[in-house]
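thought: user wants a sequence for this fold. calling inverse folding tool.
action: design(structure=
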């Protein structure tokens, strides 16, 4: 249920849509040149150099002709990256999806000097190469194919296997399903800075049981589709870090203390030199984090920093890269140890210093501008629904807001490495996505003209209203409400609540798309619905550690009560809400919340639509569920999972329920649907079921699927929660 920006889960569409739009530039391959003013991206199928200071300046680096191998069609560039010396371009094409993203494909190398264009991995299966990277010295390329790591001389094409033991379940250089899904781990190897060695993860999933999805439609006889899937309470895959010398193939297993099964290593990089590795180790319960520096010559490891939490500790924010400063003497690290998510500097011996002091959260770090002495980061101390750019001195101190005061909403920045210019993106609930190029820290358009981003709330029609509601428990929750077109406060309208409710997603953000239901085939406001979403405790918003982690061992209880109590307060304060017509819906974790709201608070919610929900928390994967609910090693530990699971309360259903699930869901398995069905049948609870054959968690595959689901959703809602004023 971990929601990264690329997953096609419509339950968080309001938030995801704008995030996908905002990430468009990076998805197209934008890369900054070393000077910080030029950048590269694909334009009309050609790799082009642009100047941020002058939009008219364009220099084609690789034309369509150059991208056309002899006797072949032009290569369609999916991704590209320059070698460190900018003399070679590595191009990814012909990609195939692995679980969530298209991380398998073919790779080509273009030599700018010689104009040679050659394919890597000749003789390997088509579209089997993963995460190809040119060595820092520009002479070799490494990649993963069929769970083994290879190195290739880019001038001669000679290929050498650096690991040979890879199988479907013994995974070198990439990850199993659970690591990819819950830690965002995909690229699983790193070149050393001196180009002599490669460090890589080895994941041993041979003892992980398969979940067998059943395909009954693609052949005359049904067949199993196995997915290695460690459910909560079962051991995770063994995880080791290995280092291999690319010349002689000598390999060592890095000495990381502890049981290789009962820990996770979600982050690993070279520690600023060719002889040391730095990594983050989490224990099985994910409430203890240790940072190790490991010497590959002596194979000695030492802990330089560690912390514990009564709930959980998140993995390092970025899956690739380590934020070194002062020529590798220190690095910048985010921690919630003082109750807020702050940036610290930590040296190689564990001495640390708080850099962002104050009662606010650092949402993410954008750039460490060591030349000018600042850290740029996203935060929103005063409004958890919005996001702004701030900066603080690298030596620490008071944070300074950089984003303009007259642009309330959600900001995103792609800052050049020189820290002087950026591509700025903005949107809010009534302003569509817009971009401009700006100077920093002045935040002035580079063309010298006034900013074209001028959000005007007064000119916006049918925009959502943002509010804060305080429940009977004293919990203040942010939310938005989209009222019907031609709203009349003297009349009563049905209300539809959109929920997620778990630690993986925020729904009440001030983004374009807020207040719009992308699963509804029509205009909810025009049809006469009130549409509401609110963020309960446990949602990942910048309100401090206690807000986010109060949900520990309480998913399905605390978040559900917050939503229900907030709904009651809205009813008290808004007489125009028709409490006889109250609906709720959600997808994935939001589907689970929908079920729990329908079952635990049937006096409030009369109609529910739950999609791809976890019905039994003990059936979900161990990394996600154990992080937030603890490790269920005994009856007490299992009791938290049972108490928070919708199937525990299915007997209380009184209203109208539509349940939707894809039988090919490798994330939230279809067994959740069948366990729920059994409970509802047991207690003679009538409901409507829609199973989509072989569809995955996003239920988007197959001709007509998305339209069918939208039609089903809309028809059910209109029938059981009729629209319009009364």
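)
observation: tool returned 726 residues.
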């Amino acid at each position: 249920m971990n929601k990264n920006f690329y997953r096609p889960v419509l339950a968080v569409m309001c938030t995801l849509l704008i995030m996908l739009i905002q990430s468009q530039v990076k998805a197209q391959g934008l890369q900054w040149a070393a000077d910080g003013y030029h950048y590269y991206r694909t334009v009309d199928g050609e790799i082009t150099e642009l100047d941020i200071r002058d939009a008219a300046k364009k220099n084609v680096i690789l034309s369509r002709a150059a991208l056309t191998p002899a006797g072949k069609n032009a290569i369609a560039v999916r991704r590209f990256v320059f070698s460190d010396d900018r003399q070679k371009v590595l191009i990814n094409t012909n990609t195939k999806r692995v679980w969530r993203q298209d991380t398998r494909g073919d790779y080509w190398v273009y030599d700018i000097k010689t104009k040679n264009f050659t394919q890597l991995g000749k003789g390997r299966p088509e579209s089997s190469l993963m995460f190809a990277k040119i060595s820092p010295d520009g002479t070799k390329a490494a990649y993963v194919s069929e769970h083994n790591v290879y190195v290739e001389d880019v001038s001669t094409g000679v290929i050498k296997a650096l690991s040979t033991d890879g199988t479907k379940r013994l995974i070198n250089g990439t990850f199993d399903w659970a690591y990819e899904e819950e830690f965002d781990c995909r690229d699983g190897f790193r070149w050393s800075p001196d180009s002599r060695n490669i460090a890589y993860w080895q994941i041993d999933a041979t003892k992980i049981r398969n979940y067998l999805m059943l395909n009954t439609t693609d052949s005359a006889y049904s067949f199993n589709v196995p997915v290695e899937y460690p459910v909560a309470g079962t051991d995770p895959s063994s995880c080791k870090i290995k280092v291999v010398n690319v010349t002689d193939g000598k390999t060592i297993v890095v000495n990381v203390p502890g049981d290789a099964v009962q820990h996770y290593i979600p982050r690993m990089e070279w520690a600023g030199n060719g002889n040391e590795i730095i990594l983050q180790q989490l224990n099985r319960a994910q409430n203890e984090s240790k940072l190790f520096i490991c010497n590959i010559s002596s194979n000695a490891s030492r802990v330089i920093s560690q912390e514990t939490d009564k709930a959980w500790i998140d993995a390092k924010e970025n899956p690739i890269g380590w934020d070194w400063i002062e020529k590798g003497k220190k690095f910048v690290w985010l921690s919630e140890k003082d109750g807020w998510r702050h940036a610290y500097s930590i040296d190689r011996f564990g001495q640390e210093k708080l850099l962002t002091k104050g009662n606010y959260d650092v949402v993410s770090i954008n750039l460490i501008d060591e030349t000018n002495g600042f850290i740029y980061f996203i935060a929103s101390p005063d409004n958890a629904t919005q996001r702004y750019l701030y900066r603080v001195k690298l030596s620490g101190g008071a944070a300074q807001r950089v984003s303009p005061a007259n642009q309330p909403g959600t900001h995103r920045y792609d800052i050049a490495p020189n820290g002087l210019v950026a591509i700025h993106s903005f949107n809010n609930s009534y302003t569509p996505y817009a971009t401009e190029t700006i100077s920093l820290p002045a935040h002035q358009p580079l063309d010298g003209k006034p900013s074209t981003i001028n959000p005007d709330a007064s000119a916006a029609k049918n925009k959502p209203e943002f509010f804060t509601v305080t429940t009977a428990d004293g919990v203040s929750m942010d939310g938005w409400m989209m009222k019907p077109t031609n709203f009349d406060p003297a009349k009563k309208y049905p209300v539809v609540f959109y929920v997620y409710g778990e630690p993986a997603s925020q729904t009440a953000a001030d983004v374009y798309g807020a207040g719009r239901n992308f699963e509804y085939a029509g205009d909810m406001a025009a049809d006469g619905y009130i549409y509401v979403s609110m963020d309960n405790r446990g949602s990942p918003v910048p309100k401090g550690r206690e807000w986010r982690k109060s949900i520990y061992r309480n998913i399905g209880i605390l978040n559900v009560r917050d939503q229900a109590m907030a709904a009651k307060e809205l009813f008290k304060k808004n007489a125009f809400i028709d409490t006889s017509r109250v609906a709720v819906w959600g997808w994935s974790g939001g589907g689970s919340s929908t079920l729990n709201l329908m079952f635990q608070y049937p006096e409030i919610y009369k109609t529910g639509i739950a999609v791809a929900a976890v019905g039994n928390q003990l059936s979900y994967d161990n990394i996600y569920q154990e992080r937030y609910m603890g490790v269920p090693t005994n009856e007490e530990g299992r009791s938290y999972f049972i108490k928070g699971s919708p199937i525990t309360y299915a007997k209380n259903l009184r209203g109208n329920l539509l349940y939707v699930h894809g039988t090919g869901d490798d994330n939230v398995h279809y067994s959740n649907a069948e366990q729920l069905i059994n409970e509802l049948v047991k207690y003679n609870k009538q409901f409507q079921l829609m199973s989509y054959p072989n569809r995955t968690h996003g239920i988007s595959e197959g001709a007509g699927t998305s339209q069918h689901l939208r039609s089903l959703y809309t028809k059910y809602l209109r029938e059981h929660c009729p629209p319009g004023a009364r």
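thought: summarizing for user.
answer: Here is the designed sequence. The first strand starts at residue 31 and ends at 32.
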